[in-house]
């Protein structure tokens, strides 16, 4: 007797599809058994998923046969109604027949097939590396977007676009050893600021600074803006505030792609896009991360717009603070959608914060058990991300009794008659209250 077994090959299938495994075998002997196995752990474990025993069963519902040249041709099928990623792997079909010469001898043969189960990505997101991060108008800094794609099998193809156009980037196989060791160009000294160069060196079409070169002190970062309570709050981004190093035509992009297997059989892919940030041309630029995958009929994408913070909205609770209250000053949002996440820094104009520190980081500033001495104090919140910086101010008014407001009484006791001193304190107290209302 002879026996030949073959399994029809299968194209890759997508999670959720129905799949039929077909085992064809040809013999001139009598059927003994058919066994289907799912092979796992590199072939060390074989799990039975279907068995047909001709000795004890007359059910031929999964068997089809017909006579052809005095041979019997059979087909055994196993149907998986909704495949899962865990169904991925090899399968084997084992067939046994009785030899025609003797009923005691069994002839065995087998065939195998690999079921390749694909899964489309389930999530995609774009975020900024190293956030929140400060803004600097005096030093070039690298900026990195990270695209994270999860749930896919096999690993997807990930690429970036800017304003709808594909980005041509230099592959970066290994992560940078240091922030400044692989920058596209050297950073210039902060004193080379367009607002301080003479007319002969100024950019074409820009007026020169009104004072002679060298007479103005170079500003010292964000601290230069923290003057008095009457200062004019600057706009978030003013082009003339940026130095000459940002005046470039095309940025140089660096791209890196990695993927890591997940326990459920899928792959997490990470793609990074790094370049030297130019706040003038990168502010309000639209970046998108797109994914191509054989299980997707069209690309999957996520997009972000790089935007500097503008117009922070600040709330203070309670609205009418009294001596001894705990006051919370919170940034609730902005006039625009901001990306990446801003860095918030709180300072008290002209003095230190209540706890004695010079500044506080975070969206919320908490002043516990406020004393009367804080009445009228002004607080500045600086919100910044790598694209720009903006300040906003709020004044704290503390309500209390005459006893709680000793700073309103004359500093020279006895210099005024008692009733005159009382009238002065009462008048000043009413002035403070009217000023608030």
From TrEMBL:
GO biological process: heterophilic cell-cell adhesion via plasma membrane cell adhesion molecules; homophilic cell adhesion via plasma membrane adhesion molecules
Record domain Ig-like: where: 16-109, 312-397
One GO CC term on file: postsynaptic membrane
SMART domains noted in UniProt: IG
Protein's name according to its UniProt entry: Immunoglobulin superfamily member 21
Taxonomic classification: Eukaryota, Metazoa, Chordata, Craniata, Vertebrata
InterPro entries: Ig-like_dom, Ig-like_dom_sf, Ig-like_fold, Ig_sub, Ig_V-set, Nectin/Nectin-like
Topology term for the membrane: Lipid-anchor; GPI-anchor
Protein localization: Postsynaptic cell membrane
Stretch list, region Disordered: 202-227
Role, per record: Involved in synaptic inhibition in the brain. Selectively regulates inhibitory presynaptic differentiation through interacting with presynaptic NRXN2.
Pfam families tied to this protein: V-set (PF07686)
Record's keyword terms, sorted: Cell membrane, Disulfide bond, Glycoprotein, GPI-anchor, Immunoglobulin domain, Lipoprotein, Membrane, Postsynaptic cell membrane, Repeat, Signal, Synapse
Gene name of this polypeptide: Igsf21
The keyword rRNA-binding appears for this protein: no
Quaternary structure annotation from Swiss-Prot or TrEMBL: Interacts (Ig-like 1 domain) with NRXN2 (via Laminin G-like 1 domain) in a trans-interaction manner.
Protein's organism: Calyptomena viridis
């Amino acid at each position: 007797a002879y026996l030949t077994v073959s399994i029809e090959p299968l194209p890759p299938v997508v999670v959720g599809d129905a799949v039929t495994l077909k085992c064809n075998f040809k013999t001139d002997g009598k059927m003994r058994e058919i066994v289907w196995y799912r092979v796992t752990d590199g072939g060390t474990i074989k799990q039975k998923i279907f068995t047909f025993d001709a000795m004890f069963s007359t059910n031929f519902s999964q068997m089809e046969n017909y006579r052809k040249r005095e041979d019997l041709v059979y087909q055994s099928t196993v149907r998986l109604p909704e495949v899962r990623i865990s169904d991925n792997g090899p399968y084997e079909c084992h067939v046994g027949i009785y030899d025609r010469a003797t009923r005691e001898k069994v002839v065995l043969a087998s065939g195998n097939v690999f079921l390749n189960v694909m899964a489309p990505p389930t999530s995609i997101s774009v975020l900024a590396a190293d956030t929140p991060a400060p803004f600097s108008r005096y030093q070039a800094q690298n900026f990195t977007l990270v695209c994270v794609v999860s749930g896919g099998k096999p690993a997807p193809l990930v690429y970036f676009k800017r304003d709808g156009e594909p980005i041509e980037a230099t592959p970066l196989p290994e992560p940078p050893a240091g922030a400044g060791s692989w920058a596209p160009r050297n950073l210039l000294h902060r004193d080379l600021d367009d607002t301080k160069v003479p007319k002969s060196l100024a950019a074409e079409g820009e007026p020169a600074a009104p004072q002679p070169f060298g007479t103005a002190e170079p500003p010292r970062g964000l601290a230069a803006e923290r003057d008095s309570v009457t200062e004019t709050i600057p706009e978030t981004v003013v082009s003339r505030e940026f130095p000459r190093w940002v005046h470039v035509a095309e940025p140089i992009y660096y791209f890196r792609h990695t993927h890591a297997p997940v326990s459920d059989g899928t792959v997490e892919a990470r793609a990074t896009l790094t370049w030297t940030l130019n706040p003038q041309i990168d502010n309000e630029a639209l970046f998108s991360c797109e994914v191509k995958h054989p299980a997707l009929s069209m690309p999957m994408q996520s997009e972000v717009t790089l935007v500097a913070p503008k117009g922070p909205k600040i709330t203070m609770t309670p609205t009418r603070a009294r001596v001894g209250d705990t006051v919370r000053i919170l940034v609730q949002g902005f006039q625009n959608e901001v990306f990446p996440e801003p860095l918030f820094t709180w300072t008290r104009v002209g003095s230190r914060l209540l706890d004695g520190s010079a500044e506080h980081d975070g969206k919320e500033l908490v002043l516990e058990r406020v004393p009367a001495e804080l009445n009228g104090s002004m607080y500045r919140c600086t919100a910044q991300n790598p694209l720009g910086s903006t300040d906003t101010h709020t004044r704290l008014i503390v309500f209390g009794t005459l006893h709680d407001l000793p700073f309103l009484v004359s500093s020279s006791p006895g210099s005024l008659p008692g009733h005159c001193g009382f009238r002065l304190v009462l008048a000043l107290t009413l002035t403070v209250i009217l000023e608030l209302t």
